[in-house]
Design the sequence.
């Protein structure tokens, strides 16, 4: 049974130390996030760029989309 909805869900696009990763899920009751490269990092060090369940467009994505970066 799912007891809690964490801020980061599997498939979210996140930024850690300036690099983009895809979150695989939360660990240790939401204190850590497992990334696509197999590493786990603290939630405090991660910034969400895009949610997997819906589309939230940030200023970074809007500007990057015009230049063709993303």
Sequence:
């Amino acid at each position: 049974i799912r007891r809690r909805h964490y801020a980061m869900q599997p498939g979210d696009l996140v930024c850690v130390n300036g690099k983009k990763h895809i979150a695989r899920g939360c660990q240790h009751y939401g204190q850590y996030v497992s990334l696509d490269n197999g590493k786990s990092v603290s939630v405090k060090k991660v910034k969400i760029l895009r949610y997997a369940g819906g589309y939230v467009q940030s200023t970074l994505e809007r500007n990057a989309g015009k230049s063709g970066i993303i």
About this structure: Strands lie at 13-16, 19-27, 32-35, 40-42, 47-50. Helices lie at 59-67. Residues 59-67 form the longest helix (9 residues). Residues 24 and 38 are 9 Å apart (CA to CA).
